[in-house]
């Protein structure tokens, strides 16, 4: 299963551009989600989702989503107390917000001149 996840996110390619240790942590979180047998998975402070839904969302994650999460980590200046929970939420949200993320960046850059 770990090798399937690595293939899914183009592991070798993304590790050429980013920190391998960070990518390995993402792979481990994705593997935990894939192997979870509990009926629900908690994402963030207050949200719980059916495991099948979370697993489906994680199956959609590509190298582009990983890059978005890494960009977000680099830009974050607030204290994160639970790194694993933060990364789980960031990975979970990446497939549903990637297009809008880049649209907002382009809008910002165009208005910043």
Which tags fit this structure?
two-stranded antiparallel sheet, mainly alpha, 113 residues
User: What characterizes the major β-sheet?
Assistant: 2 strands, antiparallel
Determine the structural class based on helices, strands and strand pairing. Answer: mainly alpha
The total of beta strands comes to 2
Distance between the termini: 46 Å
Helix percent band: over 70%
Q: What is the approximate shape?
A: globular
Spatial sequence of strands, sheet with the most strands? 1-2
Fraction in beta strands: 5-15%
Please give the count of helices: 6
SSE pattern, N- to C-terminal: HHHEEHHH
Mean pLDDT: 88
Rg (CA only): 15 Å
Spans of at least 5 consecutive residues with low confidence: 101-106
């Amino acid at each position: 299963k770990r090798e399937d996840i690595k293939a899914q996110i183009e592991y070798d390619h993304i590790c050429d551009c980013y920190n391998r240790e960070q990518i390995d942590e993402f792979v481990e979180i994705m593997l935990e989600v894939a192997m979870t047998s509990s009926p629900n998975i908690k994402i963030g402070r207050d949200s719980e989702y059916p495991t099948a839904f979370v697993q489906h969302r994680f199956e959609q994650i590509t190298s582009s989503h990983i890059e978005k999460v890494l960009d977000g980590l680099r830009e974050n200046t607030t204290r994160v107390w639970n790194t694993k929970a933060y990364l789980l939420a960031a990975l979970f949200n990446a497939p549903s917000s990637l297009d809008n993320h880049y649209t907002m960046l382009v809008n910002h850059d165009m208005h910043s001149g």
